[in-house]
UniProtKB/TrEMBL annotation:
Its main location: endoplasmic reticulum. It comes from Kryptolebias marmoratus (Mangrove killifish). Pfam families: EMP24_GP25L. Belongs to the EMP24/GP25L family. This is Transmembrane p24 trafficking protein 1a. InterPro entries: Emp24-like (IPR015720), GOLD_dom (IPR009038), GOLD_dom_sf (IPR036598). Residues 40-122 form the GOLD domain. Gene3D superfamilies: GOLD domain.
């Protein structure tokens, strides 16, 4: 199997979709994709004002395990710019209204494509506030004040964020697993290749030595006769 076919099969195994970036109400999502050699790919994430956005990316497979990364705000300002890095974690506080551009650059590599995993997490203040208002309305309408709704909300929020954090950690661990598997397969191919080359060289040397010794004894017999 060629390296390109291995990368494509690994993408099929490690593809994790939590959302379609820029579409829908979901606030968390991860994506694994192939970045062709000599090209740049950009993804867009829609945000609203005063949200917090966390971006994490990692090069899972490909020669050098490095890409360039840039984050561009809706106003055109380059918030983050990195060149030939294997991974990174960045947080943007107080986001703007509009679409943020997440660009991955592999233009410096003319032969090797890269497999890249990235995850976007948006903490929407307005969304959490709306949820609390709904809880308050339910509490008033059904007379559940005696259950200490504030404590209940705090407990449920804690459980929710811990579950989200666990999901994010599991997603990152899957990306690490895919990267380690690729490195192991690549190293196994190299070890097998050089082992075969050494074996061929040893057999060639052995055959050459035997042939030389036989020619030497044949020449000696001819001289005696």
């Amino acid at each position: 199997m060629t390296a390109s076919a291995q990368l494509r099969s690994m993408v099929c195994l490690t593809l994790t979709l939590g959302l379609t970036l820029g579409l829908g109400p979901n606030q968390h999502g991860g994506f694994t994709f192939l970045l062709p050699a000599g090209s740049t790919e950009c993804f867009y994430q829609t945000t609203t004002r005063n949200n917090n956005m966390e971006i994490e990316y990692q090069v899972i497979a490909g020669s050098g395990l490095d890409v360039g990364f840039a984050l561009i705000s809706p106003s055109g300002y380059r918030v983050i710019s990195e060149f030939r890095t294997s991974d990174g974690i960045h947080t943007v506080e107080s986001t703007e209204d509009g679409d943020y551009s997440l660009c991955f650059d592999n233009s410096f590599s003319k032969l090797s494509e890269k497999m890249v995993f990235f995850e976007v997490i948006i903490n929407s203040q307005s969304h959490t506030g709306g949820g609390r208002e709904e809880w308050a309305n339910i509490a008033v309408s059904e007379s559940l004040v005696e259950y200490k709704m504030e404590e209940l909300r705090a407990t449920m929020d804690s459980v929710y964020w811990r579950l989200e954090k666990s999901r994010q950690v599991q997603t990152v661990l899957r990306a690490f697993e895919a990267r380690d598997r690729y490195l192991l397969e690549d190293n196994l191919w190299r070890v097998s290749f050089w082992s075969c080359m050494n074996l061929i060289i040893m057999l060639t040397v052995a055959v050459s030595q035997i042939y030389t010794l036989r020619r030497l004894f044949d020449d000696t017999k001819r001289v005696r006769t």
